[in-house]
Every structure is written in structure tokens, then in C-alpha cells.
Amino acid sequence: MDEHKKLRIGIVGTGGIAHAHMAPYRTYGDVEIVGACDSVPGKARAFLDKYGLTDTPAFEDVRMMISHVAMDGASVCTYNTTHADCAIALLEAGVHVLCEKPMSFTLPEAADMVRASRKAGKILTIGFQPRFDYMRKKVDAIIESGALGKVYYVQSGGGRRRGIPGGTFVNKEKAGFGCLGDIGCYSIDECLHAIHYPKPLTVSAIATDYFGRNPKYWPEADSFDVDDFSVALVRMEGDVTFLFKQSWAMHVDTLGDTLWLGTEGAIKVCNAVDEHNKPSRVMFYTDVNGSHIDAAVLPTLPFDPAMGEMPVDMWDAKMRSFVDAVIANGPAPVPCEEILYNQAICDGIYRSSQLGKEVEIVIPNL
Questions:
Q1: How far is CA 130 from CA 101, 133, 186, 315, in A?
Q2: Which DSSP string do the residues of 105-163 spell out, in sequence order?
Q3: What distance in Å separates the CA atoms of residue 62 and residue 90, rounded to the nearest whole number?
Q4: Longest dimension (CA), the chain
Q5: CATH 3.30.360.10 residue ranges in the chain?
Q6: pLDDT per residue over 261-276, tens digit each?
Q7: Which of left, alpha, beta for 66 (phi over 0: left; psi -120 to 50: alpha)?
């Protein structure tokens, strides 16, 4: 790109998450917002006006925006079940895409998105901003160093005691998944990215809605039709076992710790609520000269001699990495090929729960 030319960015879907995209974009001197669209009449116009972009065109259909506005890149911030349609339309028009998570609803949709990206030769990156968290990067680096030896067991933890988000998140037609697609896909990425996403083979899962369908815990229980809890056993290539757990609501403070167990060491991320983010939240375990070593991984921030500690804004890092990748014409910061396996697991959990039995995961040919 011409170094003096601003990157032309469009925003598709102008609900709550779109504001988290717009805010960083507006601080970048090399970016201009050239259009926005939303299927709800007047919503995109109001969104742009809120940011003083009164002369920037608004649309109600992504294809109409594509035909009227020249874009270099676009953020897809629509409902989960429309991610694939919008992203593919943009890619086919030669536009680089940052798509919010989850990648899509079904595995075939995700595969179509990957194919469209490859065919167009355009970036498709998925919005997993926790990858840019400084402690997450520390954990990933330790695992990727080989210090754990062969990782044979991975376990997700965390969950919310109360945290059903409402709105379109609990509408199956629009969200597809509930808790699984909202925060479960984050847990899957946290657990599997550092071990380079081994191929998932089978899933045995259960998803329930005991809290969302109970008016004692959720005021709109009659219309709640997604999952608020899920647990799964995933068998993966390389003799890796993945135990997945996630919840929007439960009668306990946490579903447990996040674990990576290896033949030479292990890492535990303590998921109990800890507002002080104590150093012991991340632990590394190994043996040295016959002695057990339990070591805290300190939460030291990146440091600059002149500036001191440099806090990391995950959202800004996510958006900036996309902008920089578009300017450089790649690679994608969070490659769609990696998140295809994330989507395969989500798809498998959903199918297994619906069928009440273990299901095979078959990755489509790309």
C-alpha cells in the first residue's frame, strides 16, 4: 500500500461488539471508516453518527455496501449465524476480513470461509483478542518451548457463577450456540493454541439449559433456547485428551483450573475469582534433580527503560494486528485454518449433545 494512503475499513453489523472495533479504529491515523451496514433499519446510520461520521454512508445489506463502497478491510460484527455469509461475500469482493468469534455456527460454514479466503488470496482472521494478553502469551511461550515435554492432557476451567448475557446471545436463530459460542470458544483457543491445535477426532458432550430456562434465575426463561452449560471429552491426534467445561451460570465459583499436563512438566492457571491477580495464579510444575519444583509465573508487564511498565490493551492489539496485516497483505494474526479446528470442536459438542452420543469429527477437504 501507498504509505500515505489511509486503509479503508467497513463495519458489518453495528451492535454492541462493533463499538469495541470502532473505538481503536478511530485512534489510528492510517485508517478511515468508509461505511457501515446493519440489517436493522437506521441502526448503522445511528452508529456512524454517534462517532461523528455523518457523511459516511450507511447500508442495510452487506452486498449493497460492497457494491457502493471501496474497502480494503472489514470487521464482521453480526450475529453468529450470519458470520459465514457476510465474511464470504466480503472475501469474494476482494476485502480482507476480521470476523468476530465464534468463526461461524457449523463446521461446513467455517470450511467455506477458509476456502473463500484462499481463493480470494485475502486475510480472514478471527477475533480472539485474549491471544494478545501478556500472561496468556507467557503461558503459550512456556508450552511452546517444550518445557512440558509431550502434552498429553489439557483441561479448561473457569466459568461464570452468574453471567447470562441476554439479548441475541440467548436466541438460537441468531446466536446458534449459547455459552459455547460466547465464551466456550475462547476456552478452546486458550487450551489448544499453544499445542498447535491437534486435529480433533471424536467428541462426547452434554449441554444443558437449567438456569436459562428457569425464571428464578433468568427473567426471560420462556424464550431462552440455547445452552448455558456444556462439558465434553475430546479425543485428539497425537494421543491428546481435552476435557472441556464452560458455564454461564452455576452454583459454584469455578469449574476448576486450566491445565496442561506434560511428560516433563505442567502448567496450571488458577481460575478461582481473584481480583488481585496474585502471582500464584499461573503455576509451573516440574522435577529438577529428583526434586519437585512448584514455581509461580510472575505477571510482569512488558517493560521499557524510558516508559516503565507498558500495559497491554488486548482489543487495541487485536485491531492493530489486523490493520498491520492488511497493510502488509498478510499473514493473518489469528489464521482461519487454526480456528477451523476450534469450530470443529464447537460443532462436535453441539451435535453430540443433540444426539446424546459420541460423534466423529470429520474435517472437510479444503
A1: 12, 5, 8, 8
A2: SSHHHHHHHHHHHHHHT--EEEE-GGGG-HHHHHHHHHHHTTTT-SEEEEE-----SB-
A3: 8
A4: 69
A5: 134-311
A6: 999 999 999 886 554 4
A7: alpha
CATH architecture of 7-129+315-333: 3-Layer(aba) Sandwich (3.40)
CB atoms within 10 A of CB 302: 11
Q: Check whether 302 has a pLDDT greater than 80.
A: no
CATH of 134-311, one of 3.30.360.10, 3.40.640.10, 3.40.50.620, 3.40.50.200: 3.30.360.10
Q: What is the pLDDT of residues 57-99, one digit of tens each?
A: 999 999 999 999 999 999 999 999 999 999 999 999 999 999 9
Residue in the block written with cell 448503522: 44
Q: Are 251 and 234 in contact (CB under 8 A)?
A: no
* Residue 238, Ramachandran bin (φ over 0: left; ψ between -120 and 50: alpha; else beta): left
Tell me the helices (H) and strands (E) count for the chain, helix number first: 11, 17
Task: For the chain, list the strands marked E by DSSP.
Answer: 7-12, 31-37, 58-59, 73-76, 96-100, 124-127, 151-155, 200-208, 229-236, 240-247, 258-262, 265-269, 282-288, 291-296, 303-304, 308-309, 359-360
pLDDT of res. 307: 75
Nearest to 124 by CA among 78, 89, 87: 87
The rounded distance, in Å, linking the Cα atoms of 260 and 258 is: 7
| Sign of the CA dihedral running 209, 213, 217, 223 | positive
Kindly state the DSSP code that residue 92 receives in the 8-state scheme.
Answer: H
**Where along the chain do the CATH 3.40.50.720 domains lie?**
7-129+315-333
